[in-house]
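Crash report, auto-generated. Payload:
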Amino acid sequence: MNKIVEKFKLSENVCKFVVEAPMIAKSRKPGNFVILRVGEKGERIPLTIVDSDIAKGTITLIVQNVGASSRKLCQLEAGESLTDMVGPLGKATHIYKAGTILALGGGVGVAPLFPIVKAFKEAGNRVITVLAARSKDLVILENEMREWSDEVIVMTDDGSSGRKGLVTEGAEEVIKREKVDECVAIGPAIMMKFCALLTKKYNVPTQVSLNTIMVDGTGMCGACRVTVNGETKFTCIDGPEFNAHQIDFDELLQRMRAYKNEEDQARNNK
Amino acid sequence: MTEYTEMLNRERNAEWRVALRNSVPNKERIAIERVKMTEVEPHERIKSQTCEVNCGLTAEQAQREASRCMDCVTPTCVEGCPVSINIPKFVKQIEVGKFLDAAATLKEFSALPAVCGRVCPQEKQCEIKCFYSQKMKKEPVAIGYLERFAADYERLSGKIQIPKVEARNGIKVAAIGSGPSALSFAGDMIKFGYEVTVFEALHEIGGVLKYGIPEFRLPNSVVDVELENLKEMGVNFEKNFVVGRTASFDDLKELGYQAFFVGSGAGLPNFMNIPGENLNGVMSSNEYLTRVNLMYANQSDSDTPVMLGKRVAVIGGGNTAMDAVRTSKRLGAERSIIIYRRSLDEMPARLEEIKHAQEEGIEFMNLANPVEYLADAGGRVAKVRLQRMELGEPDASGRRRPVAIEGDIVEIEVDLVIVAIGVSPNPLIPACLAGLKMSRYGTIEVNEETMQSSIPEIFAGGDIVRGGATVILAMGDGRRAAASMHRYLQEKHKK
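Recovered output after restart:
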């Protein structure tokens, strides 16, 4: 059992939890994720660790209410507990002094992007962050990102915050303007696909973090298979970060829809 | 004479054993037919994922079967048992009706008798070594059924006996993983007096016994009772803990752990790397079985989904393939088909599993090998293209090698494909241990007798060493590792 110490609502459908997990707080690195369950018959939900506080023994998780399981999680309040949680899982992000980092975050993908931005900044890089969302209310972690970025560009579909347009437009402007050494893009698969196409055009090395379907998260099941450079990889143990220019995004998009019918049904039932 | 055979002899010469041998002439014993296991009718059992196929023996059946055993001077059966159970002793205890004593005998040697009585391939181990099979060309004593009987009798009697353990010696050791090898290791180490903690990555203890083997073959409740015994004996279980990630080996050493047994299993499914294998509707047997067995995805109150198929193809011919294909039938498939590249004779699955599958209406498409999967308009698998095979010369395994019949390709319609062609060692734990000697197959290299790895305080066993074997071989490894770790630690503390 992991107690929820604090809960915040970041937007209508996005919640932030600070959860007790002293060992994970100590051992986690940027890019790692946890798997948690809510209820004894609960699904195993993978979530990237957003931040941790070793002194308090807590980690921060951000979750979007998109289906039956994430809704269950979002309904929990401070003082209540997760049924269980395991981690840190997945390979850590390769953090080094690259020069200029372009960090692209779409929707709730800004959450897993945050620890990477923070780590690259701490490693002495210039970090330019582009945050994108449908509208103003859905832009999350803007202040935190400003604290750890040299520049933050906000893009919204409707122009209600920052500039009107897609994340790729903000990104392209930066790439045209100055030399970018590495790009990190996290968000919906379709957004990452277009970010990858853009940075490939400009030859900017790009990492993405995938949130594929998973069950155990330890390499056991292979539900998280993804084709990278023509080879099948397991997101949970080979990733979750991969070279964006080598990913078969169309297959990824297809696989993300594997349980769409079941998910729709579950959402409507509960 | 070894200590073990001396013990067997001593036990055999106990007064009651001598009297029992003399009370019934061998001629009479030999004349008894081997017991038939009562099974739930196929059409009944396929309605439920949890309905166990084998019903177990009645006390009367068990005693009669036990009386077939001639209590040989040199019991060859024990040679076939990877955990060296004193088989004649527990069989004779059943014959005289001392069922709880029989269960206690089993527990001296095995941490999981109710499990082994169900899933061990006895026909290839103790029973093939039975005097009846060896010398008389008759059906062996049903040692497996008897083991299950004694373990079940004890469980159902409510008089569960906890094996004696030595006084705690204060030395902390860890088992990594909670499958058969680790549990067997933990059971022995706790008996020797160590402080034992079992670390498990998943939210359930039991490893493959829980996520892999379906309940119609091994009910989770049976596994839970055996786990409860280990808890009662003092074994500490830590779930949701990935050693090397949640805490490092060094962290654990700082906490006082002096030696480790790695039994992290072969949890990395193999795929064939053929076109279409990443289509939706194609998954590993590990994924399929985990969703159903561990996550209860087939039950309406579970949050985890599982894809259902009307026409299900399972690729492979091992026990896991049988588990998966029979599960698909229970989950409502109209056609459930085993696709295997060799013929029925070469199939690695237990005969019993093949027989049960056949009774349940599983189709066997042998001498066929998938070469490609084709999708429907929605991107889900709709067809599998199969290369027809024929048998050629024997290969290294002694089985005739399957050879493609050029141009002989057939397509069949499927909407779910489960790939059960084997597993590789899980790299998660070894990756955290710098300097650990690994084979090129990704297994941990150990001394075969001591199960000690290239790092002295690290021992290993089960599939992480073997790369894919059986529950009982893993348990044998766990026992050997415990014995040698015990020697290692005693030696260390003498200094």
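Post-recovery validation: Residues 307 and 418 of chain B are 11 Å apart (CA to CA).
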